[in-house]
Design brief:
This protein is an alpha/beta fold. It has 2 domains: 197 residues, Rossmann fold, CATH 3.40.50; 134 residues, CobW-like, C-terminal domain (Hypothetical Protein Yjia, Chain: A,domain 2, 2-Layer Sandwich), CATH 3.30.1220. It is built from 14 helices and 13 strands. Helix 1 packs across helix 8 and helix 10 packs antiparallel against helix 11. It holds the Pfam family CobW_C.
């Protein structure tokens, strides 16, 4: 049996998301699977993929996901060989009046993980930003309360976060049909999502392909690189006392790769949104094969924010890296640096 064509509707504004999902399903003829049907399941993505094969509509299915679903897990599940679903579109419904609040949320949700560690936390702000970054279409609701400069900055920010997504202002019931028809048109190419997604703005920055079609004087994006490892103590002070205070403007999203001097053989993922930042190991140098490439020698970051003082931010990141003297001292000296970041699991830890 051929995989079912699936369009996902995501977003953290349940009433507007649900209403829009119903309208898109009605307009496109797709079988609707509402968020209420998935919300009670331990894993909404697993539940959705299990339900999709029951779709009897030639047009496919339209699945509305609850706000605690992880869009990256959905992409992975649909791209997996043998999956009964093929994901051809992600519509993100965004409450324009609460974009900043959503990206600065500090709460987390519990998600199921592997059997031996059945739950893990994920920040809601990260879920919000990934919904935008992986969207093929972004629909803005409740934007009428914003003045023109605020709306311009909001739309430019979303476009910088997701430069390949189409943006649409939804004017409510009076314009509902037009917005739904626009969304259906935006999804007509049917290009499947795969595991090598490069839609996110920070990824396009790293690839030298960041070309948003909307500009605003308050919104900027920068690609930062430095081949020297980071001093964990100075990095901690930068994050907690200078970046958090807004000294360099509002850094809303930064992501990419980095290395800590105290863990010099590990390339880590730098993942930051709003008030949340996490570092996680991605690759160990000794485990790389002859044909494998290093993800990064040092820092390779995409940074997006509002009213950024780019020269000052760049200088501060440079100051967090090793000095000439520190670098010359070598890894044995680096191991003595204070490092209060959480320990990373080793291969044996993961095996257990």
């Amino acid at each position: 049996m051929d995989p079912v064509d699936v369009v996902a509707v995501v977003g953290g504004c349940p009433p507007e998301r649900s209403h829009f999902a119903r309208e898109v399903a009605r307009s496109t003829g797709r079988m609707p699977i509402p968020a209420q049907r998935l919300a009670a399941a331990p894993d909404p993505v697993v539940e959705a993929v299990a339900l999709v094969p029951w779709c009897s509509r030639e047009q496919g299915a339209l699945v509305e996901f609850p706000d605690h679903a992880d869009v990256t897990e959905l992409i992975g599940a649909c791209a997996h060989p043998g999956s009964p679903a093929v994901l051809t579109g992600v519509v993100c419904v965004v409450d324009a009046a609460h974009v900043m609040a959503d990206l600065n949320r500090e709460d987390c949700v519990l998600r199921p993980a592997v059997p031996h560690a059945p739950w893990h936390q994920i920040a809601r702000a990260l879920l919000h930003v990934m919904n935008v970054e992986f969207a093929s279409a972004v629909v803005l609701v409740n934007w009428e309360s914003l003045d023109t400069p605020q709306l311009s900055s909001t739309m430019a920010l979303l476009n910088h976060l997701a430069p390949h997504a189409r943006l649409q202002l939804h004017r409510g019931a009076a314009d509902g049909r037009a917005a739904v028809e626009w969304t259906a048109e935006a999804l007509t190419d049917g290009t499947p999502y795969d595991i090598t997604q490069e839609r996110a703005g920070w990824v396009t920055l790293l690839n030298g392909e960041h070309d948003p079609f909307m500009a605003d004087p308050h919104v900027s994006a920068v690609h930062y690189e430095n081949v020297r490892p980071l001093h964990p103590g100075r990095l901690e002070r930068l994050l907690e006392h200078r970046l958090e205070s807004g000294e360099f403007g509002t850094v809303l999203r930064s992501a990419g790769f980095c290395r800590l001097a105290t863990r010099p053989d590990v390339t880590a993922r730098w993942n930051h949104v709003g008030r949340m930042i996490a570092f996680s190991p991605l690759a160990v140098d000794q485990d790389l094969g002859e044909e494998d490439e290093l993800l990064a020698l040092g820092q390779d970051l995409g940074i997006i924010g509002l009213d950024l003082d780019v020269p000052a931010l760049t200088a501060a990141l440079d100051d967090a890296a090793l000095t000439d003297a520190e670098f010359a001292a070598g890894p044995e000296a680096w191991s003595l640096f204070p490092d209060r970041f959480p320990a990373w699991p080793t291969v044996s830890d993961r095996a257990d």
